[in-house]
Amino acid sequence: MSKFFNLLKDTRFWLVLILVAAFWVRLYKIDNPVADWHSWRQADTAAVARNFYKDGFNPFVPKYDDMSGVAENPVPNPGRYRFVEFPIYNSLAYFLYVLNGGVNEELARLVSIFMSLGSTVFIYVIVKRYWGAATALLSAFVFAFLPYNIYFSRVILPEPTLIFFSLGMFYFTDRWINEGGRKFYATSLLFAIIAFLIKPMAVFYLLPLIYTYYRKEGKLWPIPNRYFAWAILAVLPLGLWRIWILQHPEGIPASKWLLNGNGIRFKPIFWQWIVENRFGQEILTAFGTVLFFLGLLKKAGKEGLVLHLLALSSFLYLIIFATGNVQHDYYQILIIPALAIFMARGTILLLEGINGFVPRIWTIPLAVLFFVMTFYSGWGVVKGFYQINNPSIVEAGKAADKILPKDAVVVAPYDGDTAFLYQTNRPGFPVVPLPIKDLIDKFGVKYYISVNYDAKTKWVMRKYTVLESNPKFVIVDLTREKPNFDYIGNPEPAD
């Protein structure tokens, strides 16, 4: 019996329990087709991994399915180049496809899940280092079970992998600065290189490390050579990657708009979106937001300031990428560690009681109520993310994949959203950027697939041979024009 009670006192036992439960909840609808929330970005990421398997593995030339123009200077991309993050996540998914003997998006989701579980462990060891085991364990729990984070920990996106390597960079670099040693140096550098290659946003995890360096060295300048060497080696592969991809600018998606493309930064509507919509509804809900700000506003000691600087970095990230964070809720994945840590800290403060505050007879019930309601209310919002937005694109995609040649180039118009194109398992266009004849002559497009019987689709059906048609979708063969089609009486509708 004593061994059992000792086990219950061991925080590592509870951490393992959290990890097991976290893995289980992330299996919810893991077999979803790539057609749920943010399927457009998931489809682009999944297509790179799938094309590694179909066309041959070359991480230096990642390709997806979209041939349309998405660069700053939008020109067609017939090579289907996808030059964003270095495809580390996509490569991991590809390796699982090879082991599986075929493409299975559930395996790609599993990569994100295991990365999220690793991030949970890193949050625990980081927080324990500064604020003790209780806050560390609760921080890991919050990160593991926030409904928002559960969903975005099983998506086909590079962000869960980015968080894992960014937190690993944070933890091992912090230890290297404080303790030295080649082991920590090499490990921290490896995590940093991979984090920056995935996305340069990893830089927002460096501000706390600058403070760690200042506390260790007692000065900011001059900087010892070992830190210069670490910084140069950490970003050198990213710099080489950015130089490499310039040879195909048509494959580099436009990104300047993410900063402040619509001029929303610092406007009242910006704060409303971030605090009310993102924090107050999707991520922390109103209950968790109160706990978060309570934990954030509590003064920290010199050591605890490291974690406060992580929160400050997250705040700077929201401001710098203002339009991106307002327009896309998956952009907040980067700041979930800070939100989880300070929500947990706010909860602990209420449970322990705060000097000069109301008695614990009030704060403890409030802590429990707010903590439980965070997850309950969050699930009420996030459960809709798992729904398939338009089941017709999945059905149409399966039909097209069954009857069309494997090398066919298609048009699958879906307002530029590549989720429909991905379902067809064919390269092509998710929009009709040119007249149909130009798409046929210039890009070898042979089939038109639509789930919308708009004027353009009806015109295509009149002019070309319909292979399959039902109330949900239509597949048209653009290589077989109908005889006696009246061009003058039936001009192609404009998009």
Question: Mind explaining what this structure looks like?
Answer:
With 495 residues, the chain is mainly α. It folds into two domains: 2-40 and 83-384, no CATH class; 391-481. 61% of the residues lie in helices and 5% in strands. The chain has 22 helices and five strands. The protein has helices at residues 2-9, 11-25, 39-55, 88-100, 105-131, 133-145, 147-151, 159-179, 182-198, 207-217, 225-245, 257-260, 268-283, 285-297, 305-320, 322-327, 336-352, 360-382, 391-403, 418-424, 436-443, 455-463; strands at residues 409-411, 428-429, 445-450, 464-469, 474-481. A five-stranded mixed sheet has the order 2-1-3-5-4. Strand 1, helix 20 (418-424) and strand 2 form a beta-alpha-beta unit. The longest helix is centred in the N-terminal third of the chain and has 27 residues, at 105-131. The model has no long low-confidence stretch (mean pLDDT 92).
Sum this structure up briefly.
The protein is mainly α and 495 residues long. The chain contains 22 helices and 5 strands.
The shape, in one word, is globular
Helix content: 55-70%
* Major beta-sheet overview: 5 strands, mixed
Strand order of the largest sheet: 2-1-3-5-4
The total count of strands amounts to 5
Average pLDDT, rounded to a whole number, is: 92
Tell me the series of helices and strands, N- to C-terminal: HHHHHHHHHHHHHHHHHHHEHEHEHEE
Radius of gyration: 25 Å
Distance between the termini: 74 Å
What are the low-pLDDT stretches, counting only 5+ consecutive residues below 50?
A: none
DSSP strand (E) fraction? 5-15%
Number of separate helices? 22
Structural class: mainly alpha
Quaternary structure state of the chains depicted: single chain
Count of all domains: 2
